[in-house]
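writing this on my phone so excuse typos. first protein, seq and then structure
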Amino acid sequence: MLSNNTLPPETRKILKDIPSLIDKTFPMPGRFRGALPSQIAELSRLLTNKRGDRRLSYLGQPNYLSAYLRYFLPWNLYRLCIILYSVDITLSPGDTITDLGSGPLTFASALWIARPDLRNIPLEINCIDHCAPALEAGKKFFAAVAGENLWKINIVRDSIDIRRTDVTRNKKRAAMVCAANIFNEIYEKLPHNNTDGLKRIAADAAFLMHNEASADACILTMEPGVPQSGKFISFLRAAFMELGRLPVSPCTHAAACPLNGGKKRWCHFAFETADAPKELHRLSAAAGIPKERLVLSYLLTGAVSKTPRSGAETSREKTREARIISDAFPLPRNRFGRYGCCANGLVLLAGEKERINEIGSGSLFAPVFAAGTSARHEGERDAKSGALILEVK
C-alpha cells in the first residue's frame, strides 16, 4: 500500500533527524538565520508562480542553495521515501542507477533511507545535473546520511536535454533510471491547453529514459501532484507502452489510462505530514508556506515486455484492483466518494464518510467486482466524470 503510515520506524527516525543533520553538515552562522524564511519563500515563488524569472543556475546561488537544502530537500526526501519503500525495486550487485536531474542527490539519499535491503549491495549511481554546487552539496549530504557504504556515487555535471537520445553515453545501460521533479521544468513553459506539445515532451522524455535503461530495468518518474503533471504522467505512460515498457505502479493494469490527460481529474496522491519533523513545520510556517499535505504524481515502469501487449493486459487485469487516486469529497445524500483507477476504467467509490475515509489516497481497494466483497457494482455512472459507481459497504 502506498502510504506514509507504512514507512518503517528506522526510516521515520532518519527522516525526523534530517533537519539537524543538514544543520550539522552545512552550518549556518546565526546572523543569517533570520533571513532564511524569506529566502525559502522567494525560492518557492521562483519555483511556482515566478518561474519565468528563474535562471537554470538558481541553485548555484549560495542563499538559494541553502534555502533548498533546509526546506525543499527534506520534503522531497519524504515524498521519495514513500514511493521507494512502497514499490517493487530489485537490484543486484554491480548494477548501475542513472538519476537524471539529481540536484543535491535527493534520490540517492532517499533510496538509502527508504531501502535498507539495498544498503549491502554494491551499486553505482550516476547523479546528473547541470548545477555543480548542488551536486557537490548533495555528495556531502549523502556521505553524512550513509557514512561508510558500498555505493559508488558519480556526480556528472551535464544538462538534461530530452531531445538527446542519451545522457551518460555509457555502453552499460542502467538497471534503474530515475527522474524526480525534473520534467516539469520543461513542460511548465507550455500553455496548459497545448496538449500536443505536452505529448511530444512526454514522448521525448520516455525515449531518453528508455535509452538510458537496460531491457530489464525499471524506470521511475516523480512529478508534482498538480493537474499538468498528472496529464504529463498519463502521456508518459502511453509513450512507455509504445516502447514496450508496461506500467508497474501506481497502475493496477496495462490497459489505456482512463484519465487520458483529463483537466479535472488526474492521477495524484496526497499524504498527511503530521509526523514530519517539528523543526521543518516551524520553518515552513515561518516562510508562509505551511505543508499539511504532500502531493505527488509518479510512474514506475518495468522491463521491456517479451509478450504481446494484449496478453500482458489480460494477466494484469484479472486482479480487478483499483488504485485510489483522489481525496475524499462530498456527494449528494450525505455520502462521500473517492476516485479510483482500475482495468475497467475510472471508478467512483461511494459510501458513508467514515468508510470512505478508511480507504486512503494511494491504497489498493480490491477486489471491487468479485461477489461478496465490500463494494457492490451498481452499474450507474457518475454524471460529472463518467466513472462507474461502486457502493462501498
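second protein below, same order as before
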Amino acid sequence: MRRVGSMMNSLLTALAALSCCVATLPAAQPQSLAEYKAIYDLELKNINEITPGMQSIEQHYLKTLTDLEAGFKKAGDFPGAIMVMEERKRFESCRMLPDATPDGTPGSIAEAQKAFRKSYAEVDSARIARIEKLTRQYVDALRGHTRILLEQDKMILAAEVNAEIERAQALLKSASTEGSKERRKWDFRKDYSLTKNPTKGWVYGWKPSLTGEFVSYQDAYSDNKWSGWRWNNFVPSVALNQGDEVREGTKPNDVQLHPGSSGQYSVVRWLAPASGRTKVTGTFGAGNAGIVDVHVLHRGMVVFQALSTAKDEPFSLNLEVKRGDCIDFAVGAGRNGFGSCATPLEAVISVQ
C-alpha cells in the first residue's frame, strides 16, 4: 500500500520555492500615499497567490486517499476501503481537515492527515512570515514619508498617511496572532481574517449553485473602505467594512457577503473540529437594496433559508455535528439579479 513519502517530497519542494520568494518594496520611492499603497497591495496579492488555496497539498492528499482506497480493495479490506472513500468525499466537499483525527480512524488515513497538517502549517507559516516582512517594510516607508510631509507642513496629507500606518499595523497584528487554539465557540465577525483563508475554523469561498462544489477565494484585497476576499477581481466576495460609516447597508466592522454576476453564491464555511450538540445563531442582515436568497446548510442539506428577503433574517439552530462536518452560510442573487446584493452576516457557533 502506497505511503505518503512522495507527497511530502513534493510539498517540501513547493515550500522551498515559496520561502525563496521574499517580497520587498521597490527601491524607487513613490511620491504619494496612493503609489505606496498600490505597490503594497500588489505585493500582498502576489504573496497570497503563491499557494492559492494550498491546492497542491489538497491534490496530494486526495491522491493519497485514492491510492489507499485501491490498496484496501486489493487486500480485500472493504470496510477500510469504505472509510477511505467516505473521508475522500468529505474532504472534497469541505477542503479542510478537523484539528485532530477521530479515534478509530485507520492508521494509514491518520498518517496521511498528519502529513497534510504538517505541510499545510509549514507552507502557511512561510506565507505569513512574508506578509509580516512586507508589512513592516511598508510601515517603515510610510513613516519616512510622514516625516517628509511634516517637514513640508502638509498636515492633512500626513494625517492620511498616519491613518494608513494604523491600518497596516492592524493587518500586521492580524497576521501575527493567527493561531489554532482549541475552543468551543466561534464568532465569524471576531474571527474574520484579512490575511488568512482558511482561518480559525472558517473558510471564505463560493459555489456555482447552492449544492455545487465549494471553491475557496484566492484573491485578497484591501483599500480604504473594504478588506476582503473575492473571485476573479470582483464578485462573488466577502468583505469587511473598515471605514467609519455605513456602506452598502453594512455597518463599520461588519462583514458582508456578495453573490456573483453569473448566479454564484458567496459562502462562508465552518468546519467542526469536534463532535457534539452545536448551537448556531446569527443574522443575515438586510444589507443593500437588492433582494437576495440566504441559506444555512449542514452536510449539504438546507437547515434554514429565506428565499426573498429585504429585511434582517435571524436564525437559531440546534444541530448534531460530527468532527469534520461543514456548516455553510450562503448568499445568492435572489430574484432581481446580483446588483446591490451586499448582505452582512453575523454567525456564532458553540459546540456543547
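The mean pLDDT is 82. thats all i got for now
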